Every structure is written in structure tokens, then in C-alpha cells.
Predict the 3D structure of the following.
Amino acid sequence: MNNNDINQLVRKNIQLLTPYQSARRLGGQGDVWLNANEYPIAPDYSFNAQTLNRYPQPQPKNVINRYANYAGIEPEQVIVSRGADEAIELLMRAFCQPGQDSIIYCPPTYGMYQVSAQTLGINYKAIPTKPDWQLDLTAIESNLDTVKLVYICSPNNPTGNLLNQDDIKALLKLTEHKALVIVDEAYIEFSPQASVVSWLKGYPHLVILRTLSKAFALAGLRCGFTLANKPIIDVLLKVIAPYPLPTPVADIASQALSDKGITQMQDNVMQVTLQKHQLTEALLGVSAVDTVYPGFGNYLLVRFKPNSSLFNQLWQKGIILRDQDKQIGLKDCVRITIGSAAECDTLIQAMKQHS
């Protein structure tokens, strides 16, 4: 069977699919990586578990209990998965009938909502945010027909803004008895006051996504969480893989969620926040920079002046940023992860050389 025969066997929607362009998939050669919203310094954990001959627990109790305690909810309101990316797809698999049901997402935002829907053959409706990157509730309301899931992100990636909490409450009212509202809080540790986790008790159709990839500095661990009321968690437990978390992952995740680990995470957040303020000030002194937008995560959205070649010049020097030029409303924009002090200094020096 040749390659042409194989392609004929592939599902039609997969033949047409453009995969999510992750930072690593996009590649690049260099030593200043500011394109994936990772924490710049590796944490120090030791693998302790010695039961690799056995399958792991389907939902490791220690991880679940510690995350529930950290988030201020009950263990029955938590499910752990291979990153929040798996959770995005799990919800679609559990609640959306392919070719019949739809999701809504609100660009410019994280690309996996659309890609997951395309992969599963689920219809999707892109409802752009307003010019201030807040939800267009009127447009969402008029497009709720066939919609089962509404994905929103706060702090939003890549714009960095927080969504207005009154708008989120209005969205929850619009979708009551119709659809689930999924609030992606991947970056919430950098703006904890904006979390809606305390709302779970009042909204049975609210779902929250979390991760250890950002403030906990464990992107390589691939460990994410879905927070929801028990009926939703019970449904997700039906469709998740039997052993989603390998034993080493559960071991280190449990350590990260200890009192010591949480203290370390909070220190990470403090360091990133300080570095973000310093980087913002430095970027404002670069002639090629038009706008530095306020950022509530571990990254900044920056608009270069029109027709700037700075992104490509930095790429060629091994300073890798994330181009956002093709996202709705983000012409000439790049997203810059808050790196170490040395990485940020290297970035600014290179930008000034080429401005």
C-alpha cells in the first residue's frame, strides 16, 4: 500500500486539518526561547516512586486531594489529565456529537479549541472578541444554537488580558440549561484574584481548566486539571484514558502540590511579575515597539511598528518569539514569554541593535 492509498483511508476532516503550531513544532535555532510561555528555570525534583512494574492509579489520590486542597474545592470536583490540552478534547468527546453539535471560542485566543474540534469532526463557531478583547455577548447569544461548549480564556492567551467577571457571569446566565462554559485558567496563578473557582457551587455548568505547566514550572510534566461539579467530572471519567498520568508524573505533581511546592510556585510568580515590569519598561524604550499591552500572565503581547522585520531578525539571531500577526486583530504583534533576567537583557539589546 503506497502513500496515496494511505491518504485515501484518512478521515476527510483530518486530511484537511492544519495541526496546532506549537512552539516546538515551529522550531527555530537558538538559545533564548521566549515563545512557549514556559518558566525559564527548571525546578529540582527527585523521582521517588518505585512501582514502575505496576499500572498507576487511574486518578492518583494524592494528586487529586492536594490539588483540591490547593484550589479550595472537594476532591470529587477534580479530574487530572495529560495537560489541560487533553481536557479541552475530553469535554468535546463527552458532550459533543460530531457533525451535529458545536463549540464556541473567541479569537484571538488559544488555538487548541479550534484544532481539537476540527480533529473530532465537531462544528465550531469563532466569535471574535470586541476591540478591547472582551467577550461579545450579543454575538455569542445569537450563535448559541447547536452549541454545547463555550471556551473562554482568562488571562487570555495571547493578548494577556483578564475577562470582565460580570461578562463571564452574563455568559453563564445566557448558557444556563443550554451549554457548558469552560474557563481556561492556565495562567491564573499570575492573577489569582481573577479566578472563578469559587463560583462552582453556584453554576452547575461551569468548568475550569488548570495546569502545572506555567507558574509551577512543569511544562515538561504534562499535567493538567479540570475543575467542575461532580456530575461533569463523572462524565469525563467515562471517556478519559485508563491511566492518563504515568507514575513519575503523579509522583512529581504530588511534590509540586505540597506546601513546599506551592511556596516555590508563589516565589516563581513573584519573580516573573518583577521581571515582567522590568521588561515592559525596557520594551517601551525600543524604537521599533509601538505598543506593550498590559499582561496578566507570564508573557506580554507587543505590537511592533508597521512593516518591522524585527521578529525575523531576532529569530535569525537565535531569539525565538511567538508571531501573532495572523491572529484576528493582532497585525504586527508578537507574544514574548517572560524569561530570565539574562534572557530579557539579551532580547532588549538585540532589539535596540536592529531598531
User: Anything to note?
Assistant: The mean pLDDT is 94. Residues 259-283 form the longest helix (25 residues).
